Amino acid sequence: MTNKLSPEQSWWGWKSLIVACILSLLFMIIFYVAINNEPDYMPSQKNKQMMETPEQMNHAEMHSSSSQ
Question: What single string gives the DSSP state of each residue in the chain?
């Protein structure tokens, strides 16, 4: 292999390495955000909503009964 085409000497080698690092970092950030924010249709979110609904109703009933 000639010295001009070696990855250490080629300008395209470093440029592609930097682009690959940026793209992989961007992918990892998007993946992290997607994992931490579960959508509403996930079973764990449905369980949280079912647990919160009676508490919200009890709070609303107590608030309305105290105002009467």
Answer: --STTSTTT-HHHHHHHHHHHHHHHHHHHHHHHHHHS--TTSHHHHHHHHHHHHHHHHHHHHHHHHH-
Q: How far apart are the first and last CA of the chain?
A: 89
Rounded CA Rg of the chain: 27
Q: Which domain holds residue 16?
A: 8-37
Residue 23 is assigned to a structural domain of this protein:
yes
Which tens digit of pLDDT belongs to each residue from 9-56? 677 778 888 999 999 999 999 999 988 887 777 677 677 777 776 665
Which is higher by pLDDT, 66 or 53? 53
Same-domain pairing of 33 and 44: no
What is the pTM (predicted TM-score) of this model?
0.48
